[in-house]
Amino acid sequence: MWEAPLSVTLEGPSVRLEPLVSAHAEGLRVSGSDPAIWRWMPTGTAPAEGSGTDDWIAAALRETEAGERVPFAVIDRASREVIGSTSYLELRPEHRGLEIGWTWYARARWGSGVNAGCKLLLL
After folding, report:
1. What predicted TM-score, i.e. pTM, was given to this entire model?
2. What are the φ and ψ backbone dihedral angles of 21, each rounded to 5 degrees?
């Protein structure tokens, strides 16, 4: 039986995808502080506001425990900064299928190739 990769780190030339943990909170707060990132996301507002990042991480980890999501922190390999997040969603082991989503990056990384690098690792 196929199992979701819950604790794997994926590493490419420019980014590393680490399983999301509470220790990523401060980096996610900084990288997710631009409201433009969240304009088209389901939340509509930046989780960087107040305790939102901690709440967002807690929700992602609850979904992980429920077998619904596998969230990652996106780390820039050169600077070691947390620059965003992405997830496996809609896990369907019976079909060996899943979706990739809940992806966002620090605005300074838009158009930099980070998204393509992350998606290649996830695939």
Report:
1. 0.88
2. -140, 165
Query: In this structure, what token pair is assigned to residue 108?
Result: 């300074």
**Residue 78: both structure tokens together:** 């050169």
Neighbouring CB atoms inside 10 A of 117's CB total 18
Kindly report, residue by residue over 93-112, the tens digit of the pLDDT. Answer: 888 889 999 999 999 999 99
Contact yes or no for 3/106 (Cβ under 8 A) = no
Q: Where are the beta strands (DSSP E) in the chain?
A: 10-11, 15-19, 69-76, 82-92, 97-105
Q: What is the C-alpha separation between 109 and 68, in angstroms, rounded?
A: 28
Calculate the alpha carbon distances from 97 to 7, 49, 72 in Å. Answer: 18, 34, 18
Distance of CA 71 to the CA centre of its chain: 5
Which alpha helices (H) appear in the chain, and where do they start and end?
25-31, 52-65, 114-122
Please answer whether residues 64 and 70 qualify as being in contact, where contact means their C-beta atoms are separated by less than 8 angstroms. Answer: yes
